[in-house]
Amino acid sequence: xxxxxxxxxxxxxxxxxxxxxxxxxxxxxxxxxxxxxxxxxxxxxxxxxxxxxxxxxxxxxxxxxxxxxxxxxxxxxxxxxxxxxxxxxxxxxxxxxxxxxxxxxxxxxxxxxxxxxxxxxxxxxxxxxxxxxxxxxxxxxxxxxxxxxxxxxxxxxxxxxxxxxxxxxxxxxxxxxxxxxxxxxxxxxxxxxxxxxxxxxxxxxxxxxxxxxxxxxxx
Length: 219
Fold this sequence. Notes:
By secondary structure, this protein is an alpha/beta fold. The chain is 53% helix and 11% strand. The protein starts with a helix and ends with a helix.
């Protein structure tokens, strides 16, 4: 009788330990890298008013145990992002919000080249099995209909190809609104960042939930 009882006790203790370890992994703080250009870097703003800082505050207020790192570089293009993606991955983020392409568009650079660069970045993130939220951009209509038709759909194509969620327009609700932008009408002010964070928050939280669920051991 003692041997079966001992075996059952050991199995119960082992299972409990494994579940506890799995729960600890699932609920540990997650690091989210806001990987982008001046829009994520917080150009013209105090650090506390930038996208990364305000997103972290909003997520924590919603009960999410996360840290949001600012991996934005003002002026960065998709080519610049591709050149430094390994540096961003050096911090081992659990999730990446990828926001690049605005500067390619503003400089009239090739949409095909921007798509190829973002494709390569997403491939690298996929190789590391890092969950990604792709933040899209829309071309300025002043660039003409031909450019717009080439540029605007590239984010949806990439999201479908790499099977990642897409937030279609990072500046949704903010673009060209004088009350929500700095004088250049390109970069959001602190109020504009609040709008961006509020609108993107549900998709970020969904990705956090998916990431945590994937880390939990099967029941």
